[in-house]
Amino acid sequence: HGTGGNWGVTDEGVLFGEQDPPGSGNGGLLLTDEKFSEFELELSIRPDWGPDSGVFLRTDEKGGGWQVYVDHHDNGNVGHIRLETKPYSVPFCPFKFSRVEPKASQLAMTVDARTEEWPEGVFEHSCTMEEWLAVWKTDDWNELKIRCTGGELPVIETRVNGLFVCRFNAAATTHPKFDQEKALEVAEPTGSIALQVHGGKRWQAGERVFWKNISVRSL
């Protein structure tokens, strides 16, 4: 995503990430020194509107592994899953949100067109668009919980503000674009947990993602 992004802490003790320099297109990941395999992660997030971000699981300095979306922008998603490892990346994103008005906080949901090709079983569980929209707070703090278990092809569960968003089983998913053998070539059974400042021009100068109350428990 770039050379690392710019990370800091506010006077209130809140961690933030932004591009480095702001709005430059240069992003990156903030990684844990410790490596994790099976774990539960809890954190509070407050993204500005516009940034493309995420929480990476079992990742490294190359930015591979699994990602939980924190894409707080038009056609965005928070809480579903992506296999991010290059050159093999696959999105598991059943719906997206966008602003009703450019400057308003109200969101509207749409089905991701790619789901037209999906058979039953892409997720073992996924909330509905209406359920997600009912719990998300656009201009406030939101609680994100992630549970990661299993081997090289993990089971990842996510919750947003208590809502069970999804349970994704990489060893059993029926996603038509997902190749388990290719995934096994690039995915690792252990790695860092990371927060993302995405590279590219989506982030504008002054936009940040804020994080606090981060805790992880190995299983």
The poorly predicted ranges are none
Determine the strand fraction and express it as a percent band: 35-45%
Count of individual helical segments: 2
Q: Name the helicity range.
A: under 10%
In total, the number of strands is 16
Structural description of this entry:
With 219 residues, the protein is mostly beta strands. It contains two helices and 16 strands. The protein has helices spanning 129-135, 180-186, and strands at 6-9, 15-18, 28-31, 39-47, 52-59, 66-71, 77-83, 90-92, 95-99, 107-111, 125-126, 142-149, 155-160, 163-169, 192-197, 209-218. Strand 13 and strand 14 form a beta hairpin. The longest helix is centred in the middle third of the chain and has 7 residues, at 129-135. It is globular and about 45 Å long. The chain starts with 5 loop residues before the first strand and ends with a strand. The model has no long low-confidence stretch (mean pLDDT 95).
Features:
single chain, 219 residues, mainly beta, eight-stranded antiparallel β-sheet, six-stranded antiparallel β-sheet, 6% helix, 43% strand
